Amino acid sequence: MKLFSSKKKAAILGALVGVMTLGSVAFAASTPIKLDAFYDTFKLNVNGTQQYINDRQFKPFIADSRIYIPLSTLNQLGVVNAQWDASTASVNITPSGTSSSGEVALYQQQLAALNVQLQAKTKEAEDLKAENTRLGAEVDKLKKENNSSSSTSDSRALRDLEDTFNRSRTFSRYSGPTNVGTIDFEFRVDAYRNDLEIEMYIPKTLTSSQITALKDDFRYFDEYIEDLSEEARKSFKDATVYITIYNGEYRNSPTKIGDYTYDGRRISGRIN
Question: Where is this region: Disordered (predicted)?
Answer without folding.
Answer: 139-159
